[in-house]
Design a protein that fits this description.
- By secondary structure, the protein is α/β, with parallel strands linked by helices.
- The protein has one domain (about 30-280): 2-enoyl-CoA Hydratase, Chain A, domain 1 (Alpha-Beta Complex).
- It is about 50% helix and about 10% strand.
- The protein has helices at about 5-15, 55-70, 100-115, 135-140, 165-170, 175-185, 190-200, 210-220, 225-245, 250-260, 265-284; strands at about 30, 40-45, 75-80, 120-125, 130, 145, 150-155, 190, 205.
- It binds ligand L4XM7KOE.
- One of its GO terms (biological process) is fatty acid beta-oxidation.
- This is Enoyl-CoA delta isomerase 1, mitochondrial.
Length: about 280
């Protein structure tokens, strides 16, 4: 195809598919890059972008909008200069109200299914720490660029909890079985350079601007690839994991609720919360 025809087709598809985003997001900034029509979704829930029901619901909504508008791609990043996201909001798991917890877990499942299974390409510009649920969101994306000197990993065992099977499958889709087992059983948080060495991230960046530049460059790889062929291929690789959760969704919610409310697990969470608070006090 001639370059001029390609650019005309691209411009036409940009005009007809311009995504329309709700301006009502409280915990997200959503912007579309005029040069390539890639949407950047910025997590904005200070202080640490912990994933509570509100934030998860907004992420779920934006993913629906992007799919409907046939977006050519999305970058996920953070407004904080040191935390991508601190993972699930521990307050949603500490002494939870059962009905609220079910909604929270359902929203998390929704986000995972939509992000891991999105037909459009996705990249994470990880500009801060990404423990547990933060690592999960990053691994759901197809490409990860991470700013140096931060931590990423599924550290759930450090909190006395267990990463659900669909978290584990997401890591298995990213790094080797051996590295996944070692990382999960020890609750390992990888420094940026260690994450690169093991393949948990794809590129390192010096700062957020560099991470966004590299993440944007990732989408150039798809300029000559028909989106339908891309989407089917991704579905062939990831679809069965998503089907497994769809089939077991209710059971997953019930099991998680009954495990999280066990007194030993609650004690573990309390202890971990106290450690987080003490860290601040001893630093002051
Ligand atoms: C056999 C048992 C089976 C149990 C099965 C249950 C299955 C459930 C599975 C659940 C899977 C869970 C996934 C998760 O994501 S759990 C969350 C894990 N997250 C973490 O471990 C990160 C904790 N946070 C940190 O390490 C640091 O905060 C961080 C490095 C991210 C940033 O450090 P910084 O110094 O910048 O900030 P502070 O530590 O001072 O934090 C600022 C305030 O934010 C609060 N905070 C931090 N993280 C969280 C969080 N995840 N949820 C809620 N609140 C959080 C922190 O306490 C500070 O609050 P205050 O300002 O009030 O002191």
């Amino acid at each position: 195809m001639m370059a001029s025809t390609r650019s005309l087709l691209r411009t036409k598809s940009l005009i007809s598919n311009l995504p329309r985003f709700s301006s009502n997001y409280k915990c997200l900034d959503v912007s579309v890059n005029n040069d390539n029509n890639i949407t950047t979704v910025t997590l904005k829930r200070p202080p640490v972008n912990s994933l509570n029901l509100d934030l998860l619901s907004e992420i779920s909504d934006v993913l629906t909008d992007l799919k409907k508008s046939k977006s050519p791609g999305m970058i996920l990043t953070s407004s904080s200069d040191k935390v991508f996201t601190a993972g699930l909001d521990i307050m949603e798991m500490h002494k939870p109200d059962p009905e609220r917890f079910k909604q929270f877990w359902y929203a998390l499942q929704d986000v995972w299914m939509k992000l891991y299974g999105s037909p459009f390409p996705t990249a994470a510009a990880i500009n801060g720490h990404a423990p547990a649920g933060g690592c999960l969101l990053a691994m759901c994306c197809e490409y990860r660029v991470m700013v140096q000197n931060f931590n990423i990993g599924l550290n759930e065992t450090q909190l006395g909890i267990v990463a659900p099977i669909w978290f584990i499958k997401t890591m298995l889709n990213t790094i080797s079985i051996r590295d996944t087992e070692l990382a999960l059983t020890t609750g390992r948080l990888f420094k940026t350079d260690e994450a690169l060495a093991v393949g948990l991230i794809d590129e390192m960046a010096t700062d957020k601007a560099d991470a966004l530049k590299k993440a944007n460059a990732f989408f150039e790889r798809f300029e000559m690839i028909p989106p339908i062929a891309r989407a089917y291929t991704k579905d062939s690789l990831r679809g069965s994991d998503i089907e497994d959760l769809k089939k077991n969704r209710e059971k997953d919610i019930q099991t998680t609720l009954s495990l999280i409310t066990q007194p030993k697990v609650q004690q573990g969470l309390e202890f971990y919360l106290a450690l987080l608070k003490n860290k601040k006090e001893s630093a002051a």
